Amino acid sequence: MGNITAAITAVGKYLPEFVLSNQLLETMVETNDEWIVSRTGIRERRILKEPEKGTSFLAIEACKDLLSKSQLDPKEIELVIVATATPDMQAASTAAFVASQIGATEAFSFDLESACSSFLYGMSTAARYIESGKYKKVLLIGADMNSSMIDYTDRATCIIFGDGAGAVLFEPNDEGLGVQDEYLRTDGQGREYLKVAAGGSMLPATAETVEKKQHFVRQEGRTVFKYAVSNMADVSEKILERNNLTKDDVNWLAPHQANLRIIEATANRMGLDATKVMVNIEKYGNTTSATLPLLLCDYEDQLRKGDNIIFAAFGGGFSWGALYLKWAYTKN
Ligand code: UT7
Question: Which is deepest, 13, 152, 226, 258, by most CB within 10 Å?
Fold first, then answer.
């Protein structure tokens, strides 16, 4: 890396209004609040109910929040990346639509998909554009309408996922703040354990695939859990070692919000006290690409310029990683 680092300078978020509580889920599938809270930490999630609105709607609203708070002229944005596992459609870029709708008319844009690691990989991608010196304003959005691929009769998945979006602006920094290092990994052997089988090129949509409910996400929860715990903890530990950071140097862990037990296992391996761990899973469940930017929005008031934040994620693919960032501002 050269002298320019890529710092986050603004954040924004959007959550749909409808609250799907554990109590409401009890009326839909064979489950109960006590089981869900003790096994996952989730109490409620948000669901986008408006007809004919998709992930782009969530993303646009999160961008509007960021734009209104930062007073940024959208015409200054040069690149819009939408990290998502649930694009509006298979063949038209969600990011292109989002960029147009928010007035980022001078930007180019693309979608980035790597399941629950999409936003983490998006941070790495956005940072490279900024570090190149060629781009000064890159907007990264993590947005997912998970309810579009959930079978609300399947208790193994419907209790976990929610809808939401978060947006962050990356800009060059000359004080050494922003993205410092990353450790990103994938293992394609894992795709059998967490996937939407139909609707892609391997198994295009037919009456039969719909009949067999193959357009819904399915996961072998126990297997995914096992890999998530060991891999998220491994990369988080590695990133500390590689940057000569002790647990005392870390101000915050920002972990993907899939299961409170996975979050706690990662924090324990790093030796971190619970007060340093960002958690909002109880309110939103697993929002896939949106978990990390939603954490930044919810904790923005507590973050201080220079804080060392370790981001970590694990998801379908399998895909996972950790990223070390120095926070660039203190909100007044
Ligand atoms: O975002 C990245 C990808 N996703 C993840 O990281 C998710 C990783 N996996 C998990 O978070 C957990 O595996 C789950 C939350 C999905 C499931 O928790 P678990 O502790 O692994 O439960 P389990 O699947 O091992 O099931 C334990 C028991 C079973 O009953 P028996 O066989 O012990 O009698 C299940 O049938 O709990 C039962 N069960 C439920 N009970 C009430 C499974 N789901 C439910 C439910 N409500 N929703």
Answer: 258
Same domain, 290 and 203: yes
Q: Residue 111: which domain range?
A: 5-176
Q: What distance separates the 2 farthest-apart alpha carbons in the chain?
A: 57
Number of domains in the chain: 2
Q: State the chain's mean pLDDT as an integer.
A: 97
Instruction: Confirm if 311 and 322 have CB atoms less than 8 A apart.
Output: yes
State pTM to two decimals: 0.97
**Does residue 331 lie in a domain region?**
no
Edge-to-edge order in the sheet of strand 319-326 = 178-186, 319-326, 308-315, 252-255
User: Is 204 domain-assigned?
Assistant: yes
Query: Which residues, in sequence order, are bridge partners of residue 183?
Result: 322
Q: Are residues 117 and 219 in the same domain?
A: no
The last residue of one of the domains, among 145, 176, 207, is 176
- Which among 27, 259, 264, 292 is the best mutation to test ligand 1's pocket, defined by most ligand atoms within 8 Å of the CB? 259
Residues 168 and 195 in one domain: no
C-alpha distances (whole Å) from 332 to each of 186, 196, 300 are 39, 44, 10
Nearest-5° angle of CA 59, CA 204, CA 110? 30
Q: How far apart are CA 203 and CA 268, in angstroms?
A: 41
Regions in the chain scoring below 70 on pLDDT:
1-2
Final residue before a domain boundary, out of 141, 176, 211 = 176
160 CB-near residues (< 8 Å, 6+ apart): 40, 42, 258, 259, 285, 286
Q: What separation in angstroms does the CA of 180 have from each of 127, 177, 247, 311? A: 10, 8, 17, 11
Query: In angstroms, rounded to a whole number, what is the distance separating the alpha carbons of residues 325 and 311?
Result: 8
